Amino acid sequence: MRAAIRWLGALFVAISIGTVISLAVIGAMLWWKGVLTDERIYSMLAALQGIKPPPPPSLTALDTDAEQPSFDQILHSRMRASLDLDLRENAIDKSLGDLRAIEKALQSESTRLDTWKKSFDDRLASLQTAANEASILEVQRTLEAIPPKQAKEQIMKVLAEPKSPIDDPMEDIVRILKAMPLDKRKKILQEFKTPEEVEKLAEILRVVRLGGSDTQLLQDTRRQLQQPTSP
Which of 67, 139, 189, 195 gives a 20 to 30 Å CA spacing to 181? Predict the structure, then answer.
């Protein structure tokens, strides 16, 4: 009986030693193949102790053998960046040149339009002056054709009209009277008899004396008034 117990004890010890040796061999093989790393051993021990293992470090931080760019690659990259910058500067310079050309063309066009507008305004002023001269001449002929008393009444009505920046009844009447033949003018002026009419006649003679009805002065004044005012 004792021999059987000793035999069983020896068998148990042999099995235990074999198991330990097998585990050691398996662990060595795993470590040699890189499967059993320090991180995994640390994780297994932490799991046995009930401790949550920390997250594994990033592969980038552990990758100490990552390929570094060569000097030629760095130089080529910098050269490409410099070329891109040159291309952008050239594009900006070309755009600025195009803008200057457009601005110059617009200035030339604006000058041409201003010249054309001035010519048009001068022509329009000339036509308006000619039309006004024709109207004045027609009024003069009418006053010469009607009786002096009636002509005087019409003159008083014209002088009663309000004065405007581009229309002065007094100037028109003075021009008409100055252009009339002396005998016609004398007969009309002799009809100014009442105090109001005498006062108007004195005003007419004062304007004649001062030469305020000069044709060229009227034309220049009207041209200035017809020019557009700046905003």
Answer: 195
